[in-house]
Design brief:
Layout: E1 5-6, E2 11-15, E3 17-24, E4 27-34, E5 37-43, E6 54-55, E7 61-62, E8 71-74, E9 79-86, E10 95-101, E11 112-113, E12 126-130, E13 136-142, E14 149-155, E15 166-169, E16 183-186, E17 192-197, E18 206-211, E19 221-222, E20 239-242, E21 246-253, E22 256-263, E23 268-269, E24 273-277, E25 279-286, E26 289-296, E27 299-303, E28 310-313, E29 316-322, E30 326-333, E31 336-343
Antiparallel strand pairs: 1-2, 2-31, 3-4, 4-5, 5-6, 7-9, 8-9, 9-10, 10-11, 12-13, 13-14, 14-15, 16-17, 17-18, 18-19, 20-21, 21-22, 22-23, 22-24, 25-26, 26-27, 27-28, 29-30, 30-31
Length: 344
């Protein structure tokens, strides 16, 4: 494939959908899908340019669209890409397929299956995160029993080996929200946070659970003060980022995007902050800087740390990486993936 096109406005473009970004090991990685093919592109200049994408080995029919699609995470030693794929696809089957590279994405090991029960991940909604020291966490909507639950698997060796599946949360109503993706964050100190949309007596609200060891998870902490009474799934799971002792969360209730901050020491959440109209929000941290983006009425809106919400282009399904001097934003529009680097 040819190298990415870099426009004067700092916009790189690829054919594909459902982009995801991650930073680690001195590079930024972009993954996206086109049909049943997953591609990964690498930037070694802070997102100013990306090398030509590498297409990963096929693993079946991909779960794709509405935040389904591949996820990427990076440690100091490896790059990991996860996706849900099956022989038939379309929700009929599907397992969590994991790809791993130890040479900054130049070559990739054959994919492995992470979930222990075949077809348990067939809804296609999952989240992936890692820290530099090699702790990698994969969470997903699990269908091994009646009702939808949150399950996770953990790797402590940069994705080389994985724990058995672990139940993270089961709703007292019998099912969490059936098609909102879970979000995962891993702090530098090893604290794990997973956010999901719950379903409790018809209320579709966001909750965060945390773990210190990846085996036992604490109580589910509701995000925000209001509730969304809804007899349907909004297919919008928001996003989280982990800082020193805190977890930043962005999420949607009805037609508005909100942010909350959970303090790990007290397991309490600060009052919600209204960000504006929109959906599909994302968040990223760089030290004390917290950047957020979402799909607004006119396209992608970026709110950099300390700045005002600013539209940056038409599109949807954003992903962001926060760096000290700038933010890298990827999103899809009309069958293409755009990547912008926005200065602070």
């Amino acid at each position: 494939m040819s190298a990415a096109i870099l426009f004067a406005a700092g916009l790189a473009s690829f054919a594909g959908v459902q982009p995801q970004l991650a930073a680690g090991g001195g590079a930024i990685y972009l993954t996206f899908a086109a049909g049943d093919a997953i591609s990964v592109a690498r930037s070694i200049d802070g997102g100013a340019t990306f090398a030509a994408p590498t297409v990963l080995p096929a693993a079946g029919k991909l779960a794709l669209g509405k935040r389904r699609g591949p996820r990427v995470a990076a440690t100091a030693q490896a790059v990991i890409v996860a996706a849900v794929a099956g022989a038939r696809g379309g929700g009929a089957d599907g397992d969590l397929i994991l790809y791993r590279s130890t040479d900054q994405g130049r070559t990739w090991a054959a994919p492995i299956v992470v979930d222990d029960v075949p077809g348990a991940a067939r809804e296609g909604m999952h989240g992936l995160a890692a820290n530099a020291s090699g702790l990698v966490v994969l969470a997903w909507l699990d269908l091994r029993q009646k009702g939808t639950r949150i399950y996770a698997a953990v790797s402590r060796d940069h994705g080389a080996t994985w724990s058995p599946d672990r139940l993270v949360y089961a709703s007292p109503s019998g099912s969490v929200c059936e098609c909102c993706h879970p979000s995962v964050a891993v702090a530098d100190d090893g604290r794990i946070a997973i956010m999901f949309r719950n379903q409790v007596d018809g209320r579709r609200d966001m909750y965060v659970v945390e773990s210190r060891d990846g085996a036992a998870f604490g109580p589910a902490i509701k995000q925000g003060r209001g509730s969304w009474q809804l007899e349907a799934c909004p297919m919008d799971g928001g996003a989280i980022a982990a800082g020193a002792g805190v977890t930043d969360a962005v999420w949607r209730r009805e037609a508005t995007v909100y942010a909350t901050l959970t303090r790990a020491a007290s397991a309490t959440t600060d009052a919600e902050v209204e960000l504006g109209p929109g959906r599909d929000p994302v968040v990223a941290r760089s030290g004390q800087r917290v950047d957020m983006a979402w799909t607004g009425p006119e396209g992608i809106v970026l709110r950099p740390a300390g700045g005002a919400p600013t539209p940056i282009g038409a599109g949807g399904f954003a992903s962001i990486v926060a760096l000290p001097a700038h933010t890298v934003v990827a999103y899809e529009h009309q069958g293409r993936v755009a990547v912008q680097r926005v200065g602070r």
